[in-house]
Amino acid sequence: MDLFTHVLVAYLVSFGLVGFQPSYLAAGAIAGGLPDGDVFFFPIAKRFPILRHHGITHSLLGVTIVATAGAFVGPRLAPGSPLVYFAVMEAGGIAHILMDGFTHFSVPPLLPFSDRRLEVDADRAVNFLTLAVSVASFYLLLGVERNHVAFWVYLDTVYALMAFFAAYFAIRLAGRFLIHRVVGEMGPGTVPVPTSNPFAWLLLREVRAAGRVTTTFARFVLGRGVTIGPLSAGGPVDADPSRVGPVKDANDALERSYPLARRATSVLDETYHFGEATPKASGGWSVVWYSLEFTAFGRAAGTRVDFGPDGTSQVHRGWVVPSWQRSRARGTAP
């Protein structure tokens, strides 16, 4: 989860515990963001791995140490009960751990006693939907509404945000549970990957053998089942010198373009990816290879390989729009 969402959810959790008490709310919100302060340990984390990102600060021991410190420091900055300061900061820190563990970024809540990981894999590490809601909420609560509206308007805003996040996490969990059966139907090695749409998931399976990479994917929508796929595409890691001259068909275009695309960007090697070949009106073929994970706003990071009528090629890196995304935008996809 992004830092804004961590802080906002910790604020909402603190509000649920103590109501409108600004000092406690501020303490809880700060505690919700503090675990990510481990990024400043980077220079020494190589020597002391326990200080790595998603290390000791993302454990129950780590957040308890922070909450204990807050119980002593908080009352000296703003009047209040040390016990309540401890409670809201502990809750904010635990909320951070649970939200990170909710995504595909695992955390070790029992460190240093156990390195066992929590990873529900029900959301993306950074989701632009929750990020946008969180940023807009801070602007609304701290800018537009602060000292400008009746108190009941503020309360309604807070309750609406609570309802939003409760529904959001519930939808994600429901999707993660229901997709389990579909994963089994696609075969061993299939991995469910959440998209930025809380209702939609990708089912991915990658096979690397005999110098080739083949990816199969399907799109699952909560309440509708599999709406796209399964579709498969792949190619050789190394170029085949025997494939020369004009491109014969879509399969030939994919086979010849894949090594070129892999050399152009590391995104394809580091994420699940897919390829599509389209004939050009002027002759030749256009092939896009794109990440199925590194996506935003209907576009995906990848490369486009253009083949001329004579088989010569040009490679372009950038963001591409997969054909199934274009079909969905036109309303012609299932």
User: H/E order of the elements?
Assistant: HHHHHHHEEEEHHEEEEH
Please identify the structural class as seen in this structure.
alpha+beta
Number of domains: 2
Major beta sheet, strand line-up: 1-2-3-4
Question: Averaging pLDDT over every residue, what do you get?
Answer: 90
Through-space gap between termini: 30 Å
* Count of helix runs: 10
Q: How many extended strands?
A: 8
Largest sheet: 4 strands, antiparallel
Considering DSSP H and I runs of 4 or more, what fraction of the residues is helical? 40-55%
How large, in whole angstroms, is the Cα Rg? 24 Å
Taken from the alpha-carbon principal axes, the silhouette is elongated
Counting copies of identical and different chains, the oligomeric state is: single chain
Task: Note poorly predicted spans.
Answer: none
Q: Approximately how much beta-strand content do the residues carry? A: 15-25%
